[in-house]
Design a protein that fits this description.
This protein is of the alpha+beta class and about 350 residues long. Strands 1, 2, 3, 4, 5, 6, 7, 8, 9, 10 and 11 form an eleven-stranded mixed β-sheet that branches. β3 and β4 form a beta hairpin. α7 packs antiparallel against α8. The longest helix is centred in the C-terminal third of the chain and has 43 residues. The protein starts with a helix and ends with a helix. One of its GO terms (cellular component) is nucleolus. Belongs to the BRX1 family. This is Ribosome biogenesis protein BRX1, putative. One of its GO terms (molecular function) is rRNA binding.
């Protein structure tokens, strides 16, 4: 009888312990032995497996940029495109685009390459270069003319940042002025939707965090400034003043390393390479228009010179005919007539030059 009571008591204790273990497992409560082992180990606060202390190391902001150009670019344009590829480790390259192909097919190419941003360089007459930046596939897009191009090899500047590092993007205060904040007294170059362009520049030129081809360093700065209705692009390296100031934040300076260029806005559309025009620069004059104006000015100078020559020849002919008529009528001797003729010619020619 006593043995039966002991067996029943041990079974009850085992069942109670199993029940407690099951409750602990269901509520994720660590066991007593586990806690004692942790206390005696190097991680007494159990922070090794704490989820809230783990940092995100996955590539979340999946921005990819498709960079391509049309045929007909010269060597400087090609070097600029290669410099942009070095600045953007999250880019994907594409062969040159045929000029006869419509721009709408670029959207299909970007979707096939899993790119949601586009930088398209359009060359005309082997001289002018235009830049299209677009969000794919729904837009918007913006068109610029690139002026004052200086590439990395051309500048020969002393700076040299780490290839593939993530840049700081710097914008001046003009980019914080929205299109709705503009008034009548606002300058014309500040009426550009700069907030929209700022967001597009951030998504295109900002290297995503934890990108497979990027490096977790920030050692260069890309600056966008607005002056005279144009956007000035500058690239700087964050370098120490001396070789002993690498870890001193207050002794870091900016060294320009290039490339550098100027973007003149032409138009902004609400879709990718098409759609309604959001903004059109009223002060923009195309290079073709400028060439036509110069030719017209030079043509007007030439036409004026030809007209003056024709009038001089006609005047001399009329003057000669008039003197010959007086000589034939007779009244003065020939020597005096010749003197009068030369005097009249000099007077009239001087008067003609004054006119």
């Amino acid at each position: 009888m006593r043995d039966l009571e002991e067996d029943i008591q041990t079974n009850v204790e085992l069942k109670s312990s199993d029940f407690e273990d099951s409750i602990q497992r269901s509520m994720n409560i660590p066991s007593k032995d586990y806690c004692l082992n942790k206390i005696s180990s190097k991680d007494p606060y159990m922070l090794e497996n704490a989820e809230y202390f783990k940092k995100e190391s996955r590539w979340r902001n999946k921005q990819r940029v498709l960079i391509l150009s049309t045929r007909g670019i010269n060597f400087r344009h090609r070097h600029l495109m290669e410099d942009l590829k070095k600045l953007l480790p999250h880019h994907k390259a594409e062969p040159k685009w045929e000029k006869k192909q419509p721009f709408s097919e670029i959207i299909e190419v970007s979707e096939l390459r899993s790119c949601n941003n586009i930088i398209f360089l359009e060359a005309r007459r082997h001289e002018e270069l235009y830049m299209w930046i677009s969000k794919c596939p729904d837009g918007p897009c913006a068109k610029f003319q690139i002026l004052n191009i200086h590439t990395l090899g051309e500048l020969r500047l002393p700076g040299n940042n780490l290839l593939g590092s993530r840049p700081f993007l710097s914008f001046d205060s003009s980019f914080d002025i929205g299109q709705d904040d503009n008034s009548v007294n606002t300058p014309q170059h500040l009426r550009i939707p700069l907030k929209l362009l700022k967001e597009m520049f951030i998504q295109i030129f900002g290297t995503p965090r934890y990108h497979p081809r990027s490096k977790p360093f920030h050692d260069h700065v890309i600056n966008f400034s607005v002056l005279d209705g144009k956007i000035w692009f500058r690239h700087y390296q964050i370098s120490p003043e001396t070789e002993y100031d690498h870890n001193i934040a207050d002794k870091q300076v900016l060294t320009e390393i290039g490339p550098r260029f100027v973007l003149e806005p032409i138009l902004i559309m609400d879709k990718s390479f098409t759609g309604q025009v959001i903004y059109k620069n009223p002060d923009y004059k195309s290079p073709t228009m400028i060439r036509n104006l110069l030719k017209a000015r030079m043509g007007s100078v030439y036409a004026r010179r030809v007209e003056m020559k024709r009038r001089r020849v006609e005047y001399e002919r009329n003057l000669t005919d008039e003197i010959e008529e007086k000589l034939q009528s007779g009244g003065l001797n020939n020597e005096l007539n010749e003197k009068i003729l030369s005097k009249i010619r000099q007077d009239h020619i001087s008067d003609f030059d004054k006119n």
